[in-house]
Each structure stands twice: as C-alpha cells, then as structure tokens.
Design brief:
The chain is mainly α. 77% of the residues lie in helices and 3% in strands. A two-stranded antiparallel sheet has the order 1-2. A hairpin with a 2-residue loop joins β1 and β2. α1 runs parallel beside α3. Pfam families: zf-HC2.
Length: 231
C-alpha cells in the first residue's frame, strides 16, 4: 500500500515529465479519494503553470503574469510590515514628544526651585538664612541641561535620524546618575534621584524603540544578509 509521500513524489515527477515509479491508475485513484494529496496536486499544478517558461523567439522567457503572481504573494506581507513599522514609529515619536514636554516642565520646576537659593539678602538688607548661591547656580546648570535634553528629544521626534547621537548622550547621563544614586544609597542609605533615573531610562528605551522602528527595514535586511537569507 502506497503512502502519501510516495503519491506526492509521483505527482511531482508527473508534473516534471519524469517517470513516476507508480501506475498512473493507482496514483489517480489515490488522489481521487485523498483530500491531502488532492490539495497537494492542485497546488503543485498551479505553481508549475505559474512558473512555466515559454518559448519566445527561439529562447526561453518567464510567463507574462509571473511578476503579478510574485507581487500578489509579496505585497500583502510588505503591507503588513509597513503598517507595523508606521504604527511603531508613530508610538515612538509620540513618546518622545511626551518625554520632551515633561522634561521641559521638569526644567521649569528646577528653575523655580533655584529662586530661593539665589537671593542673598532679604528686603531689609539682611542675609537670607536659606540663601545659597552655589546651590542655586547648580540648580540653574541642571535646568539648562534639562532644557537641552528636552529639545534633543523633540528634535528626535521630528528627525529620527538624530536618535543615535542623542541616545549615546542619554545613556551616558543615565549611567552617571545611576552611579551617584548607588553611591548615595550605600553611604547614606537613600537616594533622592530615582525619578531622574526613571525619566532618563524611559527616554533611552523610547529612543531605541523609535530608532528601530525607523530603521527596521534596513536592520531586517542586514540581519538576513548576515544569516545568508537574502530578502
């Protein structure tokens, strides 16, 4: 008794014009009563007809509808990939805009917080006990960095091609801040800059996400090339 594999090999040989190794009546009877082999035969025959070369001016040429057949199979996959890419890129850009605006607000709050430290005297000319010009200057410097980072995030939302450079800066600042937080935690038992690190870490994640979404096609082709799987 023949199995599905033998029948399908015989069908493939029949399409190629080669000896099947089985009696045609046996093959036809099996196909007539086997849904699996019937589906295989229909699919193989359709594919063979689609890819069949024709004689043109003494030479061989692919059928006229070959391009349409290939595109019909490729285009839906390409459209799905394009939709996923555009959606991921949109989410990344919106995330960068949100983080940029939040960082701007954060910078404004820092400027406001620096105010009491900058006044050296009261209205009566007496030295203000809470005044600390050095701390106030440090807060203003921090605010300027926050303003710059906010503008960089907004620039990346507008021009994703700028993301690699900004990501390196954000990653460096995050690592620097994390080091100080660990130091404060080990020495003082607490650290007050966890919120800063959270914003920086989230910014790095969104930056990488947006860059991958923007360059996804190139990265995919590069990966396929490295794995000897051309698209």
């Amino acid at each position: 008794m023949v199995d599905h594999g033998e029948i399908q090999q015989a069908l493939s040989a029949r399409i190629d014009g080669e000896p099947t190794g089985l009696d045609d009546a046996v093959v036809d009877a099996h196909v007539a009563n086997c849904a699996q082999c019937k589906a295989y035969w229909d699919k193989a025959l359709s594919l063979s007809q689609t890819l069949a070369f024709v004689d043109v001016d003494g030479g061989m040429a692919p059928p006229k509808d070959l391009t349409d057949s290939i595109m019909a199979g490729v285009e839906p996959e390409w459209r799905r990939f394009a939709r996923r890419r555009h959606m991921a890129l949109l989410l990344g850009r919106l995330g960068l805009v949100a983080l940029g605006l939040w960082t701007l607000v954060w910078a404004l709050i820092t400027v406001v917080q620096s105010g009491p430290f900058l006044g050296t005297t009261t209205a009566n000319g007496v030295l203000d006990p809470v005044a600390d010009p050095h701390t106030g200057a440090l807060l203003l410097q921090a605010a300027s960095v926050q303003f710059g980072f906010a503008l960089a995030l907004l620039l990346c939302a507008w021009r994703p091609s700028q993301i690699p450079g900004v990501t390196m800066i954000a990653g460096s600042v995050f690592a620097f801040t994390l080091g100080f937080a660990v130091r404060d935690y080990l020495i003082l038992g607490d650290a007050d800059n966890w919120g800063d690190m959270g914003v920086l870490f989230l910014s790095c994640v969104v930056l990488v996400w947006t860059w991958i979404a923007d360059r996804g096609g190139e990265l995919r082709r590069m990966w396929r090339t490295l794995n000897a799987q051309p698209a």
